[in-house]
Amino acid sequence: MRRKKNRALLIMIFALILAIFGVTSMIIHKIASNNEIEEARKAAEEAERVQAEEEARAQEKLDRIAEEKSQWYLLLVNEWNAMPDDFDIETAEVEGGYEVDERVKDALKEMLSDCREAGYSPQIISSFRTRSTQQWLYDHTANKSDTAIPGHSEHECGLAADIIDSSSAGWSDPLIEKQQDLPAQQWLMEHCQDYGFILRYPKDKEDVTGIIYEPWHYRYVGKEHAANIMSNGICLEEYLRDMDTYYDPQ
Ligand SMILES: [Zn+2]
Q: Is the pLDDT of residue 28 over 90?
């Protein structure tokens, strides 16, 4: 009789232990699955935050590029882009009566001076042109395709200069491809970006610029853009078209 009682007690204790174990594991399981849900929710929130940040950064970059593109030193003037109607600049003399935008004068002077100090002999033969000068040139040129239509010449924006090696000053026409072989020209082509200038009409870019190869026409765009353009071997049109590839606004 006593034995039977003990046995019943043992079964009850065992059943109780099983019940406690069962309930505990259910609770643990529940807590674990709640934690998983919470973690998944946090991960999703974090991913959303990262994506929103990336989108904001990309948009900010585009905004800053658009702002940079509208700066005076990146003005695009070519066959397809005329000078703005409200264009207005202050010009200043660089040397020999040749003028450029006053904001470009010092950079151009420095480039010429350093070129001379290196032992070469650069000479400006054209720089800022008024609309009427460009009109006169256009009217009097034999080959109209060699001269920009008035309103479409970079010389009108005061940011460009044609510079030759002075040894070619006596040539019947110094503005020919051979200009690229002269020592002052080679120095300028190698160093122009250090002063914020680019060789505006490179070889093999005629279709993009609309202008023949001109190893004498230098255009100011500022040091950072000049370095980007020259080191990538592209022209201004390509740079402005794909600026997010070549330019990283800091
Ligand atoms: Zn020119």
A: no
